[in-house]
Design a protein that fits this description.
The complex is a heterodimer of chains A (166) and B (752). With 166 residues, chain A is of the alpha+beta class. Chain A contains five helices and five strands; from the N terminus they run E-E-H-E-E-E-H-H-H-H. Chain A is globular and about 45 Å long. By secondary structure, chain B is of the alpha+beta class. Chain B has a seven-stranded mixed sheet. The chains are: A alpha+beta (166), B alpha+beta (752).
Chain lengths: 166, 752
């Protein structure tokens, strides 16, 4: 990533030091105050598994887990989250590469087509299961509605989550 | 040398599944280089006129800005229109980004700001000050319909309406039962989840590698070499993964032009990624006004069909799709008059969008047929059976196969259609009115000339390759299945490579033709390898197949086995070794059979049944059940096939209920250019979708017997839902989407 030694004349410091634990790894980072978590992951750290679909918090493609909770990475400035623990799709599988049960269920149920919304769907589903709010297919549908899928894989996404939930 | 089929016809997980669920699948904007610069597009704020001036000084002063490209300083590109005309371009003069000061549509790219990083490019772009000399624009199709014309030049591959049959007007005037209405569909935008993006990697010496969001890498390659005068050997286009497209990736989009232009000029790598709002400056499904007039006997037998469509196009290209032809294809009728015209508006050129044309025409036709059923007092399913046709009356040909009648039967049975109560507003549960609707669907089963390569290596691995794409359709997986079967190898030993312009020729992935086309090409290449391998096996020293005829052996489990005595075999690896072969590579081309095409028409068909529940007071519509029975020849992979149909139905659900790019004609632009206001279906909107694949034997549509599935799922969906809404409410909505304002009950008389 090219260094930027002077930003626009905003009066803000150009870079601020923060610490993030990303997929289990502690990272000391200098981040511009206007950089979203999404841009930090995708553009500066090369973690492109997290997707940019709208950059406005309207599609859910950028969903990641922050301290175990699902959030839209595009609506969160990185400097606000100093000290946070972040899990992206790259961090869902086990250390030995074994797929997370939700990842395996998504493959088994064909819960995606193009795959672009899939990392966000997976992180959202991990967050949903942790919340313990969904007890039926109907509730899964409701609580997964922040994650758009233009390919229309919704019925299969619900089936995959239901299987892991049981 | 017929081989058994271990994989063809069986449900298999996607071979690219693990890459997609772990985040390792990379899309166009996710490739990087040490020298990568970032371009941000500036979009025009007026719909028509000229750029009087662009002030760039403030943006140029921002540290990290490398160059600002406008019409005033852009590098030279090709002069002739033909160089810009891509594989699927309609007739006309293709749009040229930054060509001159002229503005021809709102959102037109008028500058590219390139900077060291994305945030700087975005920020600097906001500092550009543009002065316009605006001219009056026309973006309202309703007001331009008087100027409608029959396009002078036909778009390649798009059949114009068939010649009139009989005397439709006279027959309509004399018909005892008549329906005559206008139907409208709003503009829709594709909105794949992945925004359009191109990353151009500067390889040095004038060579570039382009990661493009495109449904056909060789289409982008031809465009780049044509426009920028580059040699094919200096350009390679890649798109191993495409984050949805639905037609938006058929033609090269303007970010490709801009990224390549900037990379060649700066001699460094450049990425241009569109924002979501800029996705609404690309092609779209055109607003279309249709009139359908049906005349019938008292029993609902059709006597006349008149179908006219007026569709929007840009001022510079005559975009065309097949809208009206379906009306005389789906039903038997002796008196038919179909017309299709265009009217120009000041927008970008429309684009093919999932089942282009068919979704529009079939919505109007299948709504009208439903209206006719009520007018004649005939069951809506029965009226479709009554007017069934066994031949393509447009072309005067037989179908290669047509199991639509079986779709009606099996779909109705699964849905429980016989329990339907005939009258509108006669089914109710609590505060909700319940309605059941049905519609037919059709889509042409095309096959396109495609080449593929198959390479078997001494370790028993097989690689098959063709330059097509997988936009979520499952291409990787079905090609792997086909190849594994052809050589009797486990799927794990087979790799499919696509999305690389250096691979054997393939047309764009579209029109539902990829399974038939790329699949047949891969099978042909594998068969060529098989023949060579068999010769080698037979010639091997002490070969157990020494005197065997090709028809005596089977390729199974990595072995070449004597069919009559399975104990006698030679492994693929041994045969390769005996022949001293490290690698056995063959290329083959599969083409549609022109003699068959002259005699037969090939179409997929569907019967789709929908249940809706409509809040009696509020008009809120929920789709609660869908059964879609599809006849599409042989199904290669029932799991990914089902996903294709489900996806099409969900797309159709959006079309029916929510999707609408709302124009502000005073400004000449779409207002709701984001996913918060352009409503695609969300998980909670989508009910259980039951997909039935009806047995259909077809030995003519393609060598594989497959017909393709990408479009047929959506065709008929909106009409089935609209017909269910009528059955529930007694309100006929002839304009999509059926937003609740169109369904709110009228105020009861005598109350405030």
């Amino acid at each position: 990533m090219p260094e930027r030694d002077a930003g626009p004349a905003t009066g803000l410091p150009d870079r601020m030091p923060i610490s993030l634990t990303i997929n289990g790894e502690v990272r000391q980072l200098d981040v511009a105050p206007w950089t979203s978590l999404l841009d930090l992951l995708r553009l500066e750290l090369g973690l492109t598994g997290t997707k940019k679909g709208c950059d406005h918090g309207q599609c859910g493609a950028c969903t990641i887990l922050l301290d175990g909770r699902r959030i839209n990475a595009c609506l969160t400035l990185a400097v606000m989250k100093d000290g946070a623990r972040i899990t992206t799709v790259e961090g869902l599988a086990a250390a030995d590469g074994g797929l997370h049960p939700l990842q395996a269920a998504f493959v088994e149920h064909d819960a995606f087509q193009c795959g672009y919304c899939t990392p966000g769907q997976l992180c959202s589903a991990v967050g949903l299961l942790a919340e313990g709010r969904a007890r039926s297919a109907e509730e899964i549908r409701e609580h997964m509605s922040g994650n758009l899928c233009r390919c229309g894989a919704y019925p299969n996404i619900v089936a995959a989550i239901e299987q892991v939930m049981q | 040398m017929a081989n058994g089929e271990t994989y063809f016809g069986t449900a298999r997980g996607r071979v690219d599944g693990p890459a997609k669920v772990t985040g390792s699948a990379r899309y166009a904007a996710e490739f990087a280089a040490a020298d990568l610069a970032h371009g941000h597009v500036v979009s025009a704020a007026i719909a028509k006129g000229r750029i009087a001036a662009i002030e760039t000084a403030a943006a140029e002063a921002v540290h990290g800005v490398l160059r600002i490209f406008t019409h005033a300083n852009r590098p030279g590109t090709a002069w002739r229109d033909a160089r810009y005309r891509d594989e699927v371009a309609p007739p006309g003069s293709p749009f040229r980004p930054l060509h001159d000061a002229k503005i021809v549509f709102s959102g037109q790219p008028i500058a590219l700001v390139v900077a060291e990083d994305d945030a700087t490019a975005r920020y600097a772009a906001s500092l550009l000050r543009v002065r316009y000399a605006a001219e009056p624009h026309a973006t309202d199709l309703e007001r331009q319909r008087g100027q409608a014309y029959v396009p002078r030049r036909k778009r390649t591959g798009i059949a114009p309406p068939p010649k009139p049959r009989g005397d439709a007007q006279k027959a309509f005037d004399a018909a005892p039962v008549r329906i005559d209405h206008e139907y409208r569909v709003a503009v829709e935008h594709h909105n794949p989840m992945e925004p359009h993006a191109s990353t151009v990697i500067w390889e040095g010496d004038g060579r570039i590698t382009v990661h493009d969001k495109i449904q056909g890498v060789q289409n982008s390659l031809g465009y780049i070499t044509g426009v920028f005068g580059l040699s094919q050997k200096n350009v390679r286009v890649l798109s191993p993964f495409v984050g949805g497209a639905f037609g938006s990736g058929l033609r090269p989009q303007y970010q490709l032009f801009l990224a390549v232009m900037a990379a060649l000029d700066l001699k460094r790598s450049v990425r241009v990624e569109l924002t979501r709002d800029q996705m609404f400056t690309l092609g779209y499904r055109p607003a279309t006004i249709q009139r359908v007039a049906l005349g019938a006997a008292p029993d609902g037998t059709l006597q006349a069909i008149l179908h006219d469509a007026i569709a929007g196009t840009s001022t510079f290209e005559d975009y065309q799709e097949v809208v009206v032809n379906w009306s005389s294809l789906l039903y038997h009728c002796d008196n038919v008059a179909l017309t299709y015209r265009l009217a120009q508006i000041d927008t970008y050129t429309p684009a093919d969008m999932r089942a282009p044309g068919a979704t529009l025409g079939v919505f109007a036709l299948e709504s009208a047929i439903d209206e006719l059923a009520y007018a004649a007092g005939v069951d809506p399913l029965e009226i479709r059976r009554r007017n069934y046709t066994r031949t393509d009356e447009n072309e005067g040909k037989d179908f290669t196969s047509k199991e639509l009648m079986e779709c009606y039967r099996l779909g109705a049975e699964r849905f429980g259609w016989s329990r339907r109560s005939a009258a509108p507003r006669s089914m109710r549960e609590g505060r909700e009115l319940v309605g059941w609707g049905v519609a037919s669907g059709a889509w042409e089963a095309m096959m396109m000339k495609t080449s593929a390569r198959a390479a078997l290596t001494a370790d028993g691995r097989l690689e098959v390759a063709t330059a097509t794409a997988d936009i979520g359709t499952g291409t990787y997986t079905i090609l792997t299945q086909i190849a594994a079967d052809a050589l009797g190898l486990p799927m794990e030993s087979v790799t499919a490579r696509i999305g690389d312009s250096a691979l054997p020729h393939s047309p764009v992935e579209g029109g539902s033709w990829t399974a038939a086309s790329a699949g047949s090409a891969v099978q042909a290449a594998c068969r060529a390898v098989r023949e060579k391998l068999f010769s080698a096996a037979r010639a091997a020293e002490n070969s157990p197949l020494a005197n065997a005829d090709p028809s005596h052996v089977r390729f199974v489990n990595g072995r070449i086995v004597l069919a009559a005595d399975p104990a006698r075999f030679i492994t693929v690896a041994d045969a390769m070794r005996a022949a001293g072969l490290e690698r056995l590579e063959e290329e083959a081309t599969a083409s549609p059979d022109s003699a068959t095409q002259k005699r037969y028409s090939a179409y997929t068909h569907s019967a789709i049944f929908a249940e809706v529940r409509v809040d009696a007071q509020l008009g809120v519509v929920r789709v609660t059940r869908i059964v879609n029975a599809v006849a599409a020849g042989r199904i290669i992979n029932p799991r990914t096939a089902r996903s294709q149909i489900i996806g099409g139905v969900v797309f159709g659900l959006g079309m029916a209920l929510t999707e609408e790019s709302l124009p502000d004609h005073a400004l000449g632009r779409f207002m709701n250019h984001n996913l918060g206001e352009y409503h695609i279906p969300v998980n909670a909107d989508v009910p259980a979708i039951d997909v039935i694949f009806v047995d259909e034997h077809d030995d003519k549509a393609s060598p594989l017997g497959v017909k393709g599935l990408g479009e047929i799922g959506i065709v008929g969906s909106a009409a089935a839902i609209a017909n269910a809404v009528y059955h529930a409410t007694g309100t006929r909505v002839r304009s999509l989407p059926m937003t609740l304002d169109k369904l709110l009950p009228e105020k009861p008389a005598g109350r405030a």
